[in-house]
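Input (structure):
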């Protein structure tokens, strides 16, 4: 916000440097005034059009910012030329008018930007979504979609237009229509664009109750054949393989996707969790688990241990939260490093109906050979009830964890599930 206001003040100051000097002299050309008013009206129309394009997804935010800045520069240029002409024709000082403009221009700019730029959301981006919903911009988007539909009826071979229409339908949650529009765009040459293929697959999946089975999976496979490390395609392909319980394929896609992200980022850590979950499922089903292609960047080398590391203990759920869980909800018990990566070093999977139960965590349960219990001197043992069965924490999950413990102290650990994930 500080950068926004600094830029706004600077732009107003620049505008005033062009506007104020001519106002110290009396204007004598009505045509100059009329032309200035026309330029302002044209600029307002162009700004409104940019806002609509941004809301419709036709242009990205960076394109919008560049176009808006160019529009403002153009308007300032027009005003400066007219100001010079008026100054040449003026003959008398008018400091009162200059003072009025010095106050009015910033005030009018704020009012216009508030109304033309999105109301309160213009000054607080965090309110943007609420503002869009409150002011009913959906109707404006619907109108623009109608215009785009009409244009494509007259020019059905416009692949770019069909892609924009697909994005617009997706924004409006008209997934079946969006899938058809993306299909037309792909047929018109977009089938070599991995981004379009990924969007197409995503849309078809949404139309099919989020299922990636069949056409969506084939589309992202084609996209990855064109660009093997395409981010969205890897996300979708990993999801598709997981849905089909093809865990080796899911592991491969998510290992590749992990290489796209910077270590330490939220997406990187989420990939660690996805990979850990898939590896655990493969272990439980007796499948051969390959060595990890990408160990966590913060992983430490294994430290000497007097024997195989092992932690034993028990898990229970407090009675006041029992009504928040179903007997078949999944319970994960895991150990992670007290300091370092959050990827589980060992994990056990049970169900709520098994509670309370005893557990054992040891090196044989490692998700990654470079990330074992014996690799870290201190850990935290946690337990989580997941309604989705997903190893990644989600809002509403029940959770609890131990204090920091030494891996080799041999004392049983009691974990109490006593809180709800916000």
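Output (sequence):
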């Amino acid at each position: 916000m500080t950068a926004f206001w600094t830029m706004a003040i600077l732009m107003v100051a620049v505008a005033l440097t062009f506007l104020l000097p001519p106002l110290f002299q009396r204007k004598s050309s009505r045509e100059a005034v009329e032309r200035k008013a026309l330029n302002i009206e044209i600029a307002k129309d162009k700004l409104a059009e940019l806002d609509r394009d941004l809301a419709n997804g036709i242009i990205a935010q960076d394109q919008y910012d560049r176009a808006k800045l160019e529009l403002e520069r153009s308007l300032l240029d027009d005003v400066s030329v007219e100001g010079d002409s008026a100054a040449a024709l003026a003959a008398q000082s008018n400091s009162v008018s200059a003072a009025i403009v010095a106050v009015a221009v910033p005030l009018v700019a704020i009012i216009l930007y508030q109304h033309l730029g999105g109301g309160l959301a213009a000054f607080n981006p965090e309110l943007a979504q609420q503002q869009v919903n409150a002011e009913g911009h959906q109707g404006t988007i619907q109108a623009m979609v109608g215009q785009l539909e009409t244009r494509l009826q007259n020019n059905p071979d416009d692949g770019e237009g069909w892609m924009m229409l697909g994005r617009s339908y997706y924004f409006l949650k008209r997934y079946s229509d969006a899938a058809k529009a993306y299909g037309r765009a792909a047929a018109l040459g977009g089938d070599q664009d991995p981004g379009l293929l990924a969007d197409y697959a995503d849309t078809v999946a949404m139309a099919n109750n989020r299922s990636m089975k069949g056409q969506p999976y084939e589309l992202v496979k084609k996209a990855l054949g064109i660009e093997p490390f395409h981010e969205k395609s890897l996300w979708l392909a990993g999801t598709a393989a997981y849905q089909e319980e093809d865990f080796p394929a899911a592991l491969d896609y998510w290992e590749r996707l992990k290489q796209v992200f910077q270590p330490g980022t939220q997406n990187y850590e989420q990939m660690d969790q996805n990979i850990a979950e898939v590896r655990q499922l493969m272990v439980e089903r007796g499948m051969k688990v390959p060595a990890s292609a990408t160990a966590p960047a913060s992983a430490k080398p294994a430290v000497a241990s007097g024997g195989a590391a092992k932690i034993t203990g028990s898990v229970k759920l407090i009675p006041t939260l029992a009504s928040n869980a179903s007997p078949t909800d999944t319970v994960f018990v895991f150990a992670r490093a007290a300091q370092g990566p959050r990827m589980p070093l060992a994990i056990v999977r049970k169900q709520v109906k098994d509670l309370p139960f005893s557990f054992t965590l040891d090196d044989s349960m490692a998700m990654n050979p470079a990330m074992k219990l014996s690799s870290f001197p201190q850990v935290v043992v946690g337990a989580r009830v997941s309604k989705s069965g997903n190893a990644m924490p989600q809002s509403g999950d029940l959770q609890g964890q131990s204090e920091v413990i030494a891996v080799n102290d041999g004392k049983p650990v009691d974990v109490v599930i006593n809180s709800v994930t916000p």
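Notes: The longest strand covers residues 378-386. Residues 61-89 form the longest helix (29 residues).
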